[in-house]
Design a protein that fits this description.
19% strand, 401 residues, globular, 18 strands, alpha/beta, four-stranded mixed β-sheet
Length: 401
């Protein structure tokens, strides 16, 4: 008798949702997007864009901080934008400097280069500017999305290594779906002035980053029954869709079907993994945990942006993996993460700290399959991107274990 695979219900992409909300707001909210992400980050973005207030606390929502800084700079008014204590430690100087160069009036209300911000919204002139591309792609995306409403448009020169390029490409794709004219050649992005024109309809894709946790769970469980992740497509605009080929190295084979992507058990997996995560930085935690549990030695490059995320994800990974007995190292320049098989004393009853970071909680769910006594602190932090993660995780465990 044929066994029907378990179907996992993934959230919609918060990265796409947040871009669609910002762009749609500039088009006077003429579109009702379908399948918006049901998570803290997108809810905060939606609430701010539909608020009559002028002072906003966006909590831990880093995407909202960057995108709203640019959005509010062109909306006439006197605005204040702040966030959690951790958000006030995350730099925003390169974006503020760039916006002020094109006509914005943004001031720091505390430490220079960091939130909270006072924003005096007005017409943006635009023109030609240079911005460092090695810190955060969200600075670039924020500038791009408001650029059509700058008087002269924007010619943006990207200085240095471009991190998370796939997220910039995502921004360009969504902008073009709303009628923007964007030209990207080498290290220059030109956005021409003009109004956004919403399409007849827009449906947000399922989240490929969220898919990584079930790829990881399947990899470490070593079960043979198939698993189906709903709503994923091979032609996704999300850069994290590239993970399919990488999971094959860890023994998970993907097959695209009408409902989504189907997993099968591969016949082999690598003994070592070397990979540059510059274009998929949000997957580093999942792969680091999976590789340690599968005894796959690894070296990951392109991890430098992880230090300015919800927490310093490199330091957090080193600490929490040590609780499980794995000695993971970060290079002195903090551009690579590696594990050569080194071990350290493991805690008898390990309790994983999540540091207010949703991806720490979900990545370490993999370890609970191998270590039933493991506890994860502040598990509800997953609401930032995947509110029903633990329900889907329980369904997975009930089916496969």
């Amino acid at each position: 008798m044929k066994i029907e695979p378990l179907m996992i219900h993934l959230p919609a992409s918060k990265s796409i949702s947040n871009r669609v909300l910002i762009i749609n707001a500039m088009a006077d909210g003429m579109l009702e997007p379908e399948n918006l992400a049901d998570c803290d980050d997108t809810r905060i973005m939606y609430e701010v864009l539909n608020s009559s207030e002028n002072c906003f606390d966006i909590g831990h929502a880093g995407t909202a901080m960057r995108f709203l800084t640019a959005f509010l700079s062109r909306i006439v008014g006197d605005w204040e934008l702040t966030g959690s204590p951790r958000m006030q430690q995350r730099p925003i100087g390169p974006l503020v400097n760039a916006l002020n160069q094109v006509g914005a009036r943004i001031e720091y209300m505390g430490k220079s280069g960091y939130p909270p911000l006072r924003i005096i919204g007005s017409m943006l002139v635009g023109g030609e500017i240079t911005i460092p591309a090695s810190v955060s792609s969200q600075y670039i995306s924020a500038l791009m999305m408001v650029a059509p409403y700058m008087l002269h448009g924007l010619l943006l020169h990207l200085d240095g290594k471009v991190v998370s390029r796939t997220y910039i490409e995502m921004t360009m794709r969504v902008m073009c779906d709303f009628g923007a004219r964007v030209d990207w050649q080498a290290d220059c992005i030109q956005i021409f002035p003009g109004d956004y024109i919403p399409p007849a309809s827009y449906r947000v894709e399922a989240d490929w980053t969220a898919a990584s946790y079930f790829y990881g769970l399947y990899a470490v469980s070593e079960k043979t029954e198939p698993l189906l992740l709903e709503g994923l497509t091979a032609d996704s605009i999300q850069g994290d869709a590239q993970q399919v080929a990488l999971w094959e190295k860890l023994g998970v084979i993907s097959s695209f079907v009408r409902e989504g992507v189907l997993f099968f058990r591969g016949t082999s997996r690598v003994r070592t993994l070397e990979y540059d995560f510059t274009f998929m930085p949000d997957l580093v935690q999942t792969f680091a945990v999976a590789c340690c549990l599968l005894d796959i030695h690894f070296t990951f490059w392109g991890v430098e942006t992880l230090v300015i995320k919800e927490t310093d994800r490199l330091a957090a990974l080193v600490m929490e993996l040590s609780r499980l007995g794995f000695k993971v190292d970060v290079s002195p320049d903090r551009t690579s993460l590696c594990w050569d098989g080194g071990k350290c004393p493991a805690e008898n009853l390990p309790c994983i700290h999540t540091y207010g970071d949703h991806r720490m909680a979900m990545a370490f769910s993999l370890a609970s399959l191998k270590m039933p006594s493991l506890m994860i602190q502040n598990k509800e932090v997953v609401s930032k991107s995947f509110p029903h993660f633990w329900e889907e995780f329980s369904r997975y465990c009930s089916y496969f274990l």
